[in-house]
Amino acid sequence: MPSPIDLIVGLGNPGSEYAQTRHNVGFWLLDELAKISGTTFQTQSKFFGETARLKMDDHDCWLLKPTTFMNRSGQSVGAVAAFYRIPVERILVVHDDLDLAPGTIRLKEGGGHGGHNGLRDITTRFSSGKYLRLRIGIGHPGSGSDVSKYVLNRPSASEEMDIHHAITSSLDSMPDILSGNLQKAMNELHSKKDQD
């Protein structure tokens, strides 16, 4: 039986120069989630990030936006998990994914880091990849040598629209994700792009 979620982590880089970049779509989703639920983020130096308390239906959990920069995300996630005694299986990490087209979203249980620096650091911190991932497609530049520049730039207007559409779809399924009803959430999320 899948575990309910006690911590949702959105990955991104701090600072206004990164706010609209592809690498920050995890922040975008958490900002929207906080907005629709009427909660606000507070900077917490002991957690190396910004946190908020989310209440949705009968479930409540923590939201976290690390301010450590992407390749040190595990420092922030580890600090929150240790303080609130949250096991790795009850963590959802929202992140950008180069292997998915813009507007595609996938929910995944565990796995490797796929070259994503934020996931790599979280997995290293917990010595485990057994956290839930919400993968938001940003597309791929076509060449591996262009990836760094690509993720740190803003998507095109049409790509950005597709990404925000995916985020909206994710928020619709969030009550099921939080309660651990993952199969239902996967069925809904994984079919939406095909229907559009």
What's the CATH H-level homologous superfamily? Peptidyl-tRNA hydrolase
Main β sheet profile? 7 strands, mixed
Output the structural class.
alpha/beta
Number of domains: 1
Give the helices and strands as they follow along the chain: EHEEEHEEHEHHH
Residues in β-strands, percent:
15-25%
**Shape type:** globular
CATH topology tier name = Rossmann fold
Estimate the helix proportion, in percent.
25-40%
Give the N-terminus to C-terminus distance in angstroms: 31 Å
Count of DSSP-assigned helices: 6
- Kindly state the mean pLDDT as a whole number? 91
CATH class: Alpha Beta
Description:
This protein has helices spanning 25-37, 73-84, 117-126, 147-151, 157-179, 182-195, and strands spanning 7-10, 42-44, 49-56, 59-66, 91-97, 105-109, 132-137. It has 196 residues and is of the alpha/beta class. A seven-stranded mixed beta sheet has the order 2-3-4-1-5-7-6, sandwiched between helices. Strand 3 and strand 4 (59-66) form a beta hairpin. Helix 1 (25-37) crosses helix 5, helix 2 (73-84) packs parallel to helix 3 and helix 5 (157-179) runs antiparallel to helix 6. The longest helix is centred in the C-terminal third of the chain and has 23 residues, at 157-179. The mean pLDDT is 91.
Descriptive labels:
6 helices; 196 residues; alpha/beta; 7 strands; 39% helix; Rossmann fold; seven-stranded mixed β-sheet
